Amino acid sequence: MVKxxxxxxxxxxxSLTVLSxxxxxxxxxxxxxxxxxxxSNYTWYYFSENTYKKIEKVHLVPTAVSKPWTxxxxxxxCAMEEASSLENPKGFATINQCGILVFQGNKINLYNxxxxxxxxxxxxxxxxxxxxxFSVYKSTFFNESKSALQKTHPFLVMFNSEQNILYPLINxxxxxxxxxxxxxxxxxxxxxxxxxxxxxxSEKVDFSYITFQPKEDITLLTPYTAENMLHISxxxxxxxxxxxxxxxxxxxxxxxxxxxxxxxxxxxxSVSVQTVQSxxxxxxxxxxxxxxxxxxxxxxxxxxDTWTACLFQDGTIYLNGALFEKNxxxxxxxxxxxxxxxxxxxxxGDFVISGTTLYAAWEETSFYKTKRSGFISVNLxxxxxxx
Length: 387
Fold this sequence. Notes:
Blueprint: H1 2-5, H2 9-19, E1 34-36, E2 42-48, E3 51-55, E4 67-68, E5 75-80, E6 90-95, E7 99-104, E8 107-112, H3 114-117, E9 121-128, E10 131-137, E11 154-160, E12 165-171, E13 181-188, E14 193-200, E15 205-214, E16 230-235, H4 237-244, E17 247-248, H5 254-259, E18 269-275, E19 282-286, E20 297-303, E21 307-312, E22 316-321, E23 335-338, E24 346-354, E25 357-366, E26 369-379, H6 380-385
Parallel strand pairs: 1-23, 17-19, 18-20
Antiparallel strand pairs: 2-3, 2-26, 4-26, 5-6, 6-7, 7-8, 9-10, 10-11, 11-12, 13-14, 14-15, 15-16, 18-19, 20-21, 21-22, 22-23, 24-25, 25-26
């Protein structure tokens, strides 16, 4: 993926240029503008041990040991709550092996819980019962430490965003599984949780699949009550693949297609789409029929009540609508923003927007390993509204 990012962004930059062309005379005259983030309106942060630190430039971040992505301290998933009339909506990010970040406006807080996170891969952040919920598991292929599990074997964990406390909801044992099992992936469709289970012994590795549905609000469960409060049924690899399959871009939400309509037709991309305070994202793929087999550009998109945004890995952002308590941008037309260029082998990842502040993950990668990682905060009010 890294190599293609060195060539594809030119097509995206071209599309941003096209955006600035005025409409035809017979149409109402509007103009879609593009903006470039500058050092005065963004701040870099990087992860060090179990915390994050501010730094002037990414290339100044101290070198880090290369680790498999399951073991590296990095932003592994993001999700957002719905906006209220009282305060900026919160954005959340799971930090692998570390904790959970909470973004609200220009405020950043990190909540660590080594009992839950140490030695475990965290991610798959979704909303259920109005609360952010994520999964944790131990990658036995890369992590041989048995002590990391200690006395508990959690699967789903809730972050109570009002009390700022982490609560295990469901342990592996609650699903009728033994300590040799790990749920390495799941998809939540708003009703059912479809899970992939990895069981490893000295001779082989087996995979199995289940689907479960809580009998009550999942946020009310605990590992002591969950066992009798779950409808569990056996699934198979086909049902799991169907739940996780990538979809044709033609079936993507209309708001997303409107947002990305100026991306040149010869640019292939896949975009992971998530609505605010919702279930697992779905991936939509746009691939030119005449294109050769190659890696395609990836992006993350968020659809909220008042705005739609999409961030490509090269730092190109498309934004449409009105940010929290702000006017509609550019007469309802798409805005384009270019985040600062990252060094070679670095890419942007998941993101959230809280109020008028964007937070986007970045990391240095090589195949399946991660070195340096962190995030950038961008003052969109300065870029978009104070021109």
